[in-house]
Amino acid sequence: MREAWEATRWTDTQTDEYQAHLQRGNVGVLLGPASDGLCAIDIDDDRDMEPFFNLNPGLRDTLITRGARLSNMGALYPG
């Protein structure tokens, strides 16, 4: 993990060194107050996605990433 990754700015990500690091590592997402309220929601079973969206229709069109075992979506909740 990069030291102090949470302090990384967009301009820092534009260097050849940083881009090469992305090819070898994971991506972190800063959540909470530092990101103006971004939160992550994990859903461990794809069968739970539709019931979740039925209860939260405004999140149906948000960014959703899927892994081998779970789905993750991001939502902005200011405050």
Plain-language structure description:
By secondary structure, this protein is α+β, with helices and mostly antiparallel strands. The chain has 2 helices and 3 strands. It has helices at residues 16-24, 49-55, and strands spanning 38-43, 64-66, 71-76. The protein has a 3-stranded antiparallel β-sheet with strand order 1-3-2, with no helix packed on it. Strand 2 and strand 3 form a beta hairpin. The longest helix has 9 residues, at 16-24. It is elongated and about 45 Å long. 1% of the residues are buried.
Summarize the structure.
The chain has 79 residues and is α+β, with helices and mostly antiparallel strands. 20% of the residues lie in helices and 19% in strands. Strands 1-3-2 form a three-stranded antiparallel sheet, with no helix packed on it.
Give the helices and strands, then pairings:
Blueprint: H1 16-24, E1 38-43, H2 49-55, E2 64-66, E3 71-76
Antiparallel strand pairs: 1-3, 2-3
Helix content: 10-25%
Structural class of the secondary elements?
A: alpha+beta
Weakly predicted, low-confidence segments: none
Profile the largest sheet.
Answer: 3 strands, antiparallel
The fraction of residues in strands falls at 15-25%
Strand order of the largest sheet: 1-3-2
Choose one word for the global shape.
elongated
How many DSSP E strands? 3
Distance between the termini: 29 Å
Order of helices and strands: HEHEE
Number of helices, where a helix is a run of at least 4 consecutive DSSP H or I residues: 2
What is the alpha-carbon Rg in Å? 15 Å
Oligomer state equals single chain
